[in-house]
Write a structure and sequence with these properties.
Helix 1 packs across helix 2, helix 2 packs across helix 3 and helix 3 packs across helix 4. The longest helix has 27 residues. The protein is built from 4 helices and no strands. The model has no long low-confidence stretch (mean pLDDT about 85). The protein has one domain. By secondary structure, the protein is mainly alpha-helical.
């Protein structure tokens, strides 16, 4: 069963790369996404270690970085709000 999933993952990844390479606009999208990803990670890192928010630390993991990439500053507020509510 694992081989079926691995073949499916590799085939879909290959087809996704093919679509990105064939479409010139996708390179621009990929570049913007990469820049947003780096900016979100740096923002979370600076927020954690600057001491602006005391008592709370936002972990740097794919879920929090993805939330901040997708939502921007409201994503940071969402992650902090969830952290305050749940812990």
């Amino acid at each position: 069963m694992k081989t079926v999933w691995m073949i499916s993952l590799l085939a879909s990844s290959l087809l996704l790369v093919l679509v990105i390479v064939r479409n010139r606009l996708s390179f621009r999208w990929l570049k913007r996404f990469g820049l947003h990803l780096v900016a979100a990670a740096l923002t979370l890192y600076m927020l954690n270690y600057s001491g602006v928010i005391t008592g709370y630390e936002v972990p740097l993991n794919p879920a929090t970085i993805g939330t901040v990439v997708l939502l921007g500053l409201p994503g940071i507020a969402l992650v902090l709000g969830l952290q305050m509510t749940l812990f």
